[in-house]
């Protein structure tokens, strides 16, 4: 079955400069004011911006605000070559456009248990931020409403305990656009209701990532958890009788242990002993833990092991 190409709308381009000491063609000034206003500037800053074609102080300050957000020099001037600036505003004001990911993959090479538990997907008909809330849709910025959770993107990439540099580099490795990575990097170490506010304000600017970007981001983050689980197992297992190497553990047991690392390990020695004893022992260990069982309804670890 063939799929036709879906062309996006034309991104507005300046023919002359707008802003401080710019040419300030009234029609282009008005277009910039319209883009900035619709990109949520008023909601974010509490400031009003008239759409009148006059490049006043309020317009220049609005330009500077978005330049700072995008790590650009805040000189208050937009040149025709500043396509990155225009692209970011266009994505925020016209999020009804999406590439058609009707055949988008939802399968990963490793960690399917965790991938499935960390979010859901659906075919985008209208913008996620302009429609009735769809819980746990993962290809946009989200915030699980708990004080310990940070801004999250994709399947479980929580930015609450990450540095700005780590976020930016990981998102770029996942193929996510640079301006989106810049915005997301500002969510470093933000948690709780502050994270929820970040999603509300900056979510429309970031918009929706593709299925392939989501998979790549998950694979990068999942490998970190694999390394954490393997390293802790090596430190603990040498004190456990008849403990095999990590790589010799049943693959589904490895998957469940890694999945547990996404919520936090409690009593690592007992967890690893159960893993060594086999699937039935690990199921019993999970059932006997009120903490692990609190996640069972949506993690489905027991069913996976059976």
From TrEMBL:
SUPFAM superfamilies per record: PGBD-like
Source taxon at top rank: Bacteria
Alphabetical GO biological process terms: defense response to bacterium; killing of cells of another organism
UniProt KW keywords: Antimicrobial, Bacteriolytic enzyme
Any one GO molecular-function label of the UniProt entry: lysozyme activity
Name this protein carries in UniProt: Peptidoglycan binding-like domain-containing protein
Naturally occurring in which organism (per UniProt): Mixta gaviniae
